């Protein structure tokens, strides 16, 4: 495989503050702005959450479908269930002073992607008509980081 000598790689981190569990944070415009700042006109963009309890998804930004998705994920891993991860009397791994009881967040995360890869065409995200890029907060309000890698010519 031979790489085009004109190929470019551009990487940037993007931070946002979420407001709480099951927030769909639409970051499409911010990612498009990053793409416009890059030298890449044709290629691929990879968007990755740097967290185990935040997902990157592509879907429609329609309030009722977002409510439906929240309801489905809550049925899969309800916050009110008992999780071993939440029992700090037996848990001994990856503990911090500000540890949350967030077993439900980790369980929801196993059904969702941590990253997305999209095409870049003529300097723009090649999204469908209703596509939006979301960081989905599965835990409590906090600062989240997305790593964005742009590759192409």
- Using only C-alpha atoms, the radius of gyration works out to 18 Å
Major sheet: arrangement of strands: 1-8-3-5-6
The mean pLDDT is 95
Number of domains: 1
Order of helices and strands: EEHEEHHEEEE
Silhouette: globular
Please give the CATH architecture: Sandwich
Proportion in helices: 10-25%
Q: Under CATH, the topology is which?
A: Jelly Rolls
Main beta sheet strand tally, sense and closure? 5 strands, antiparallel
Counted by DSSP, the helix tally is 3
Distance between the termini: 16 Å
In CATH, what is the homologous superfamily?
YjbQ-like
User: CATH class, anyone?
Assistant: Mainly Beta
What oligomeric state is this?
A: single chain
Given helix and strand content, the structural type is alpha+beta
- List segments where confidence is low: pLDDT < 50 over at least 5 consecutive residues: none
**Strand composition percent:** 25-35%
Account of the protein in words:
This protein has one domain: Sandwich (Jelly Rolls), CATH 2.60.120. The mean pLDDT is 95. The longest helix is centred in the middle third of the chain and has 14 residues, at 63-76. A 5-stranded antiparallel β-sheet has the order 1-8-3-5-6, with helices on one face. A 3-stranded antiparallel β-sheet has the order 2-7-4, covered by helices on one side. It has helices at 28-37, 63-76, 103-109; strands at 8-17, 24-26, 43-49, 54-60, 115-121, 124-125, 131-137, 143-152. It is of the alpha+beta class.
């Amino acid at each position: 495989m031979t790489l085009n000598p004109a190929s470019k790689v551009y990487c940037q981190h993007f931070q946002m503050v979420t407001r709480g569990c099951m927030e769909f944070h639409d970051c499409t415009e911010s990612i498009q702005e990053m793409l416009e700042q890059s030298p890449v006109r044709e290629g691929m963009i990879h968007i990755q959450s740097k967290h185990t309890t935040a997902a990157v998804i592509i879907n429609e930004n329609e309030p009722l479908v977002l409510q439906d998705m929240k309801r489905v994920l809550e049925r899969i891993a309800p916050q009110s269930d008992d999780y071993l991860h939440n029992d700090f009397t037996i848990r001994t791994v990856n503990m911090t002073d500000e540890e949350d009881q967030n077993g439900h967040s980790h369980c929801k995360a196993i059904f969702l992607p941590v990253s997305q890869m999209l095409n870049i065409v003529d300097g723009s995200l090649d999204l469908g008509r209703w596509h939006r890029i979301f960081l989905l907060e599965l835990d409590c309000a906090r600062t989240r980081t997305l790593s964005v890698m742009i590759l192409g010519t």
